[in-house]
Design brief:
By secondary structure, the protein is α/β, with parallel strands linked by helices. It has a single domain, classed as 3-Layer(aba) Sandwich (Rossmann fold). Helix content is 31%, strand content 21%. The protein has helices spanning 16-24, 76-84, 100-113, 133-139, 159-173; strands spanning 2-10, 52-56, 61-67, 87-93, 118-123, 151-153. Strands 2-3-1-4-5-6 form a 6-stranded mixed sheet, sandwiched between helices. It binds guanosine-5'-triphosphate and magnesium ion. Magnesium ion binds at residues 16-17, 70. This is GTPase. InterPro entries: Gliding_Motility_GTPase (IPR052705), P-loop_NTPase (IPR027417). It comes from Chamaesiphon polymorphus CCALA 037.
């Protein structure tokens, strides 16, 4: 069986858990289980407070989606997740510019640990005070649009929107 490991990371309250839940709801062949941990990643007695869902497409192909722990400090858990990841999504809440600095720190951390396909998903676009994606790109230090990863607006509460984001990520992997 081919397993693709995806990591969903991002700023506080950006919608990481909601994204992973929405993704799990769109699978074609339901494996009928909700996981909270993965023995392939963690010893069974470890209490790992991460989001985890499996998307089983058929007997040959599954996607495992992991959310990074909600803490500002980067620790071994982040390293384990990112070193095994095949691709990742960085979610940023558009209405919380005070968190953009943290998003930059995540980007730096990720770049140091893995050169893998990624996209940036801008959430909470419907909220008051939301920055436009192009302005967020500038705030993240992307001054040249040809050198930036795909930056897509995503409503994590909307399955179709999450599916579109995942397709964009898959395109980066090809
Ligand atoms: N309006 C709006 N609300 C959203 C959007 N995405 C997520 N939310 C809501 O934002 C809140 C936080 O979402 P979570 O999925 O818990 O975010 P998280 O990144 O897992 O949060 P932490 O784990 O605490 O960092 C929830 O109430 C979601 O329903 C969005 O695009 N627009
Ligand atoms: Mg969460």
């Amino acid at each position: 069986m081919e397993i693709m490991n995806l990591v969903v990371t991002g700023t506080l309250g950006a919608g990481k858990s909601t994204f992973i839940l929405s993704a799990s709801e769109m699978q074609v062949a339901a494996p009928d289980k909700h996981n909270t941990g993965d023995e392939a990643f963690f010893p069974q007695d470890t209490t790992a407070s991460i989001d985890f869902e499996t998307l089983q497409f058929d007997e040959e192909m599954a996607i495992h989606i992991y959310g990074t722990p909600s803490q500002v400090r980067f620790d071994f858990m982040w390293e384990i997740l990112i070193e095994r990841a095949h691709a990742y999504v960085l979610l940023i809440a558009a209405h919380r510019p005070s968190e953009f600095h943290y998003a930059r720190r995540i980007l730096n951390f990720m770049n140091q640990h893995a050169q893998i396909p990624m996209i940036i998903g801008i959430t909470h676009n419907d909220c008051e005070g939301a920055w436009r994606p192009e302005d967020i790109a500038l705030a993240l230090g992307y001054h040249n649009s040809t050198k930036q990863p795909p930056i897509v607006a995503v409503n994590t509460q909307d399955r179709a929107s999450v599916a579109m984001a995942l397709i964009t990520l898959m395109e980066q992997c090809l």
